[in-house]
Specification:
The chain is of the alpha+beta class and 133 residues long. The chain is 25% helix and 47% strand.
Length: 133
């Protein structure tokens, strides 16, 4: 006796249909949200805020942890952050890092290396430039 397709469908438990419906709703909702963000998202440029944390001695060098927050509506790619140790108007040492990608409404962490102790100088940290992805 060959089973009919209708008979096989009748044997699928109702909880399977519920799970499939929930999965479909989640996928459709996610796709809709991403489409909404792509079409109606904030087109403002990146608004980058850079904060430094406590200096960490590291053998013969010093690390300065930094946190870059992008509060703007667009992402920044290839962001270059520069740290400069100043003594009055004289530049003592410079360190820089390039961050691959900083999405909008996100934070990224990095560290700058210095051979001199940044706590003994005026540390200035700034974004130098980025690419539009």
């Amino acid at each position: 006796m060959a089973k009919q397709i209708g008979e096989q469908a009748d044997k699928i438990p109702s909880w399977s249909w519920v799970a499939a419906a929930v999965g479909l709703a989640l996928v459709a909702g996610s796709a809709g949200f991403m489409l909404f963000r792509a079409l109606a998202g904030d087109p403002s440029p990146p608004d980058l805020v850079i904060e430094t944390e406590a200096v960490v001695p590291n053998g013969s060098s010093y690390l300065v942890p930094i946190r870059v927050a992008n509060r703007g509506g667009s992402a920044a790619a290839g962001l270059t952050v520069e740290g400069v140790l100043m003594e009055g108007t004289v530049t003592v040492e410079t360190s820089a890092i390039t961050m691959d990608y900083v999405p909008s409404s996100s934070q990224r962490k990095a560290r700058l290396f210095f051979s001199r102790d940044p706590r003994k100088f005026d540390l200035q940290v700034r974004a130098k430039g980025y690419e539009q992805p």
